[in-house]
């Protein structure tokens, strides 16, 4: 009889404990210890944790409904370049972006309140490789051209600043951080593009055009950035949101 009471008491204690952690969700086993919102070394803690998890997100994370980031799959990106000697519009299809999981997180700086998040991450990606299909039409100088086929580009020494801003929302009595803005800015060290059939049926002109593009890669990249940025911003924001939407704010950033 006594032991039955004991079991009942234990069960009550156990369910009370379970109730106390209610709202806490299961995290991946590899997940590092959360950084306290008010920790004196908050910035360094965030930097270390980001550095730790990014390579592990390569295959995505089911617990967060996160898609793989190695590669990041990008659907259509439309670009237009009107800058001497180029005047063309192009669409890149089914692109795959490789390299995001080998990011080096150089610095983090965060202001976290009970209801808002403002975080900047300085990152470095040594090499990114992007491949996909393209369709292009336009002019180089006064020479009209059109082409389609596979393309790829290697980008070296990418430095980026990822700026995230969020506000808490209530979901079933629990506060979650909702990422409102994700603003990436980029600087690139070098770029080398490859495309076959850039000028349909004229391999020697394709070579000439590719050489021009690789020689003038900086203005080419600058011109392509606005279109690419939106697409990147969408993907990165979704990636960040998959964590923040799945895990209560106080579990991600507890108060010590
Ligand atoms: C990049 O594209 C070029 C031209 O289509 C192709 O010859 C080359 O094999 C590609 N590189 C890789 C690593 O896929």
UniProtKB/TrEMBL annotation:
UniProt keyword list: Biological rhythms, Signal
Biological process annotations from GO: circadian rhythm
InterPro entries from the UniProt entry: Haemolymph_juvenile_hormone-bd, To_sf
Keyword tRNA-binding in record: no
Signal peptide: 1-18
Pfam families in the record: JHBP
Domain of life, per lineage: Eukaryota
Keyword Signal in record: yes
Gene Ontology cellular component list: extracellular space
Family (UniProt): Belongs to the TO family.
UniProt-recorded name of the protein: Circadian clock-controlled protein daywake
The species this protein was found in: Frankliniella occidentalis (Western flower thrips)
Organism phylogeny: Eukaryota, Metazoa, Ecdysozoa, Arthropoda, Hexapoda
Gene coding for it: LOC113217680
């Amino acid at each position: 009889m006594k032991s039955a009471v004991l079991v009942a008491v234990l069960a009550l204690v156990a369910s009370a404990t379970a109730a106390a952690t209610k709202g806490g969700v299961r995290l991946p086993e590899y997940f590092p210890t959360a950084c306290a919102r008010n920790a004196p070394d908050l910035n360094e803690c965030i930097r270390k944790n980001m550095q730790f998890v990014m390579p592990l997100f390569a295959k995505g994370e089911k617990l967060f409904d996160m898609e793989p980031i190695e590669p990041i799959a990008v659907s259509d990106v439309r670009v237009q370049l009107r800058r001497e000697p180029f005047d063309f519009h192009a669409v890149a299809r089914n692109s795959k972006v490789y390299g995001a999981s080998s990011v080096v997180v150089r610095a983090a700086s965060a202001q976290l309140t009970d209801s808002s998040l403002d975080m900047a991450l300085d990152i470095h990606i040594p090499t990114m490789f992007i491949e996909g299909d393209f369709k292009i039409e336009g002019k180089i100088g006064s020479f009209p051209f059109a082409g389609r086929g596979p393309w790829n580009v290697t980008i070296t020494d990418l430095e980026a600043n990822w700026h995230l801003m969020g506000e808490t929302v209530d979901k079933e009595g629990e506060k979650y951080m909702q990422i409102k803005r994700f603003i990436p800015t980029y600087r690139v060290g070098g770029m080398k593009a490859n495309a076959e059939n850039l000028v349909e049926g004229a391999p020697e002109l394709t070579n000439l055009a590719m050489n021009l593009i690789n020689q003038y890669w900086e203005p080419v990249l600058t011109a392509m950035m606005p279109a690419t940025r939106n697409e990147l911003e969408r993907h990165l924001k979704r990636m960040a949101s998959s964590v923040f939407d799945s895990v209560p704010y106080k579990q991600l950033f507890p108060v010590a």
